[in-house]
Amino acid sequence: MKISELSRRTGVPVASIKYFRREGLLPAGRATAATLAEYGEEHVQRLRLIKALTTLGGLSIAATRDVLATVDQAENTDKTLEAISYALPVPVTAASAGDADRDAAAESAAAADVMDLIAAMDWQVPGTSPHVRGLTTALRELRRLDADYRPERLVAYAELAHSIARLDLERAAAFDDSPALAEQAVIVLALSGPMLELLRRLAQEDQVRRRGADHPDAE
Amino acid sequence: MKISELSRRTGVPVASIKYFRREGLLPAGRATAATLAEYGEEHVQRLRLIKALTTLGGLSIAATRDVLATVDQAENTDKTLEAISYALPVPVTAASAGDADRDAAAESAAAADVMDLIAAMDWQVPGTSPHVRGLTTALRELRRLDADYRPERLVAYAELAHSIARLDLERAAAFDDSPALAEQAVIVLALSGPMLELLRRLAQEDQVRRRGADHPDAE
Q1: Looking at A174-178, A192-196, B123-127, which range is the least confident one?
Q2: Which residues contact B155 (CB under 8 A, 6 or more apart)?
Q3: Buried-most residue among A56, A141, B96, B161 (CB within 10 A)?
Q4: B132 and A202: CB-CB below 8 Å?
Q5: HTH merR-type domain spans which residues (chains A, B) (predicted)?
Q6: How high does pLDDT run on average in chain B?
Q7: pTM recorded for the entire structure
Q8: Beta strand extents in chain A (DSSP E only)
Q9: Do B157 and A192 touch (CB under 8 A)?
């Protein structure tokens, strides 16, 4: 199909398609003339994946390129899943929380909380994981907030997170190692988060409304 | 305390403190001289909350102002919780997914999926909720991705999201209607999401590693 048809099929403007080509996110079409290229279904699927990662997944163009490169180099599904997981942006980083704001006591206390949690959950994760660092930063800031913060509460959240990850991986487990199925893994890993957040917000709304109904005297 | 001490206590630069003052996020200190103001513990707590919302919560200054205004106008905890929930940025919006990309069939199918899910969960949420719109957009894009997408799977995620929201609200339920405790509610609602995402990623890492260990022949 021509680029105009590719644009119509995917809802991605022609200019954006050309941009993704230049940035190396989208493979070239088959040249049919000096200025014409023929695109196929693989381009439609890849464009939809790029769109999902950059919009729903909230990935930058650079992060999207990293994730797609990982997908295209897929050796086996497990390695691909870990590589994708590490390529996705981490919601909390030390930088995002402000490195200027150092507090050795809170930092080490938070690091201990994270290690205790990982031990309690018997999670096999390296201390170098960006998610370990992110969680440590988040707990450090919560400690500094004097929030009603109790490390033991984390276990309840961690157990639910574990169940959610099991759902995610059940979907990924069916995948063989073809790039097409690695793409499905990207969708699962990158888009489960935003979807889960929306579901959690809806459930919060429901429970707040029910609380209001339970004791209208609260009005 | 002087502004320099306030900065030291919170790790927020003096220039940022003055900026938050100008933007109306932080109340004025008690003037002790033409150019001097005395700040108290309430300023320390408010600055830490602003920092948590803007860094860990990923809120813009405008969104932070909205949330803090909601906190300060707290009538009762339930109303405050809903107002805060609506003031927080929605992870997926129609705009973020590109309004140019219209697909009436996918749109209505997604809307039906969301309504079915809400009915299945017996969630009391208005169709006007930004989270209903966000979820509809997310499902529309997933449908268009030809992802291995099955609406019935959503129920399993929704049930876990429901349990997580219960944990969130259990923490909020203890709060009375004082602004200080409304602040705790903000922390719960705004920061549970990023924390949960990190826990989910850690659990995914653990399960991927165990899968690899289960069948090393996959190497």
Answers
A1: A174-178
A2: B117, B120, B121
A3: A141
A4: yes
A5: 1-70
A6: 81
A7: 0.80
A8: 30-33, 36-38
A9: yes
